[in-house]
């Protein structure tokens, strides 16, 4: 069947298995239209290396291959539970998310967070969890 007649797209996921044995080229040559990179796994350097390789192989084979970045959604671990104590707050109470405390450390007034960039990403009044 000619590629021009195909009405569906083939989406493949890149990962360690496509990094070896010329597998990425085999996948693209077999007809992949889109490659998906799961940003929940791997480093930014891994993703850049794979994207560059996709572009290189696609050009070599004369193919157009889209790159789909699958972004990680919200995780509860961004706001971890306290390890040793329960706490509750009443609307209007002040509660500190402290990037300088360890994950799960803190008390009824503050808790450590694992997302160190949070203070730069928010402003007073932002809703962080609902």
UniProtKB/TrEMBL annotation:
GO terms for molecular function: ATP binding; kinase activity; magnesium ion binding; potassium ion binding; pyruvate kinase activity. Pfam families: PK (PF00224). The keyword Magnesium applies. Its EC number is 2.7.1.40. Keywords: ATP-binding, Glycolysis, Kinase, Magnesium, Metal-binding, Nucleotide-binding, Pyruvate, Transferase. Residues 6-128 form the Pyruvate kinase barrel domain. Pathway: Carbohydrate degradation; glycolysis; pyruvate from D-glyceraldehyde 3-phosphate: step 5/5. SUPFAM superfamilies: Phosphoenolpyruvate/pyruvate domain. InterPro entries: Pyr_Knase (IPR001697), Pyrv/PenolPyrv_kinase-like_dom (IPR015813), Pyrv_kinase-like_dom_sf (IPR040442), Pyrv_Knase_brl (IPR015793), Pyrv_Knase_insert_dom_sf (IPR015806). Belongs to the pyruvate kinase family. This is pyruvate kinase. The gene is pykA_2.
């Amino acid at each position: 069947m000619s590629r021009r007649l195909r009405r569906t797209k083939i989406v493949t996921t890149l990962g360690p298995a496509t990094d070896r044995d010329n597998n990425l080229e085999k996948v693209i040559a077999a007809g992949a239209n889109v490659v998906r990179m799961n940003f929940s796994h791997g480093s930014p350097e891994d993703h850049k290396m794979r994207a560059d390789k996709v572009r290189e192989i696609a050009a070599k084979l004369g193919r157009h291959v889209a790159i789909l970045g699958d972004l990680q959604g919200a995780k509860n671990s961004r706001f971890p539970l306290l390890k040793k104590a329960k706490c509750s707050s009443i609307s209007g109470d002040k509660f500190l998310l402290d990037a300088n405390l360890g994950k799960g450390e803190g008390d009824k007034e503050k808790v450590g967070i694992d997302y160190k960039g949070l203070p730069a990403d928010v402003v007073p009044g932002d809703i962080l969890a609902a």
